[in-house]
Amino acid sequence: MQLPTDFSYLYGQPAGTALIRTEAEDFQVFEQLPFEPDGEGEHYLVYIRKIGENTDWVARKLARFCHTTPREVGYAGKKDRHAVTEQWFSVKVPIKREVDWTLFNSKTIQVLKAVRHGRKLRLGALKGNRFKLRLREVSQPDELVARLEQIRNGVPNYFGEQRFGNDWNNLHSGLALLSGELKERQRHKKGLYISAVRSWLFNRLLSQRIEQGLWQTLLPGDALMLEGSRSCFAADAEQDMAQLLQRLEQRDLHLTGALWGRGEPMAQLDARQWERDQLAPWSELLGGLEQLGLNQERRALRLLPAALAAHAESERQWWLEFELPAGAFATSVLRELCQVTAPVRGNDA
């Protein structure tokens, strides 16, 4: 099965180009938790700065250092390897045991903070991330500046290339898994593959919405998400559509797209029919996701980069900074700014 992967640009495909990730320091990520460590408990929350290191590798190293098993180590999300990243880990350590965290430091790992906490850190327990990115060899600085102003109003909230794997391998494996051509016993890999299929379907809906001029058009029955929340509701015929459209324009509300699964979609009326029409060619994929037991969910179509700032080190070298909520991809912001390329490296999985 061949799936189209040329997703629509909101502001048209950029003409300018740039290099990214030439060095690890060119891509910096700073994790933001939605809570403060409580200062007591059988877990340590450890804030670690790492350079060019894989999240899972650091987690295993942390387990060995604390004389425990990897299952007693937690983190909120995986971070890019070819980057400088600061993220939180949790590790279960008996309350009476003190840890000298300076002994865990190395050339590529530094413990910045360690605080006792009552619970293990779970995947997804994340407010968001702050990014600081260096763009090298920027070919059209004037276009970059103009597009920076455009993206303050939002960019398509696409799942990024990391979700699909090198050369779309995760997506291809997901298709093979759903068709029965591939058997995967490892739960982690199976989850990656299925997630890639589900994410592609969402990207397809979002791309079609842009292509058909419906990016910020409110259809009767559209499922709307409150800004800064995952709370959703459907716009029914009895609601004041003009008021909802105003809130949409003010960025208090966001249109959403389906993350497919079993159950009735939240979208109603015209919006539900539109989504079904767009996904009709891939009904087998929809059925496969439903049979796996995944439930219907929604994801905002619009992504608003917060605290967006940029400055030039030189005419062709720029620093870009912004904050994104959990589950959003920096590559979705970058693709609307310029066509970026990175050095070819091996698979980091």
What coarse outline follows from CA principal-axis ratios?
globular
Number of strands: 16
Q: Segments where pLDDT lies below 50 for 5+ residues?
A: none
The average pLDDT is 94
| Multimeric organization | single chain
CATH superfamily of one domain: TruD, insertion domain
What Rg is obtained from the alpha carbons, in whole angstroms?
A: 22 Å
The SSE string, one letter per element, is EEEHEEEEHEHHHEEHEHHEEEEHE
Q: Percent of residues in helical segments?
A: 25-40%
How much strand content do the residues show? Answer: 25-35%
Quickly give the structural class. Answer: alpha+beta
Largest sheet: 8 strands, mixed
CATH class of one domain: Alpha Beta
Distance between the termini: 25 Å
CATH fold title of one domain: Pseudouridine synthase
Written description of the protein model:
This protein has 349 residues and is α+β, with helices and mostly antiparallel strands. Among the domains are: 35-117, Pseudouridine synthase, CATH 3.30.2350; 155-303, 2-Layer Sandwich (Pseudouridine synthase), CATH 3.30.2340. Helix content is 28%, strand content 26%. It is built from nine helices and 16 strands. It has helices at residues 55-65, 141-151, 161-164, 169-179, 187-211, 241-249, 269-279, 283-291, 330-337; strands spanning 17-19, 27-32, 43-51, 73-75, 84-92, 109-117, 128-135, 155-156, 223-226, 232-234, 253-259, 297-300, 302-303, 306-314, 317-325, 339-341. Strands 2, 3, 4, 5, 6, 7, 14 and 15 form an eight-stranded mixed β-sheet that branches. A hairpin with a 5-residue loop joins strand 9 and strand 10 (232-234). The longest helix has 25 residues, at 187-211. The protein starts with 16 loop residues before the first strand and ends in an 8-residue tail after the last strand.
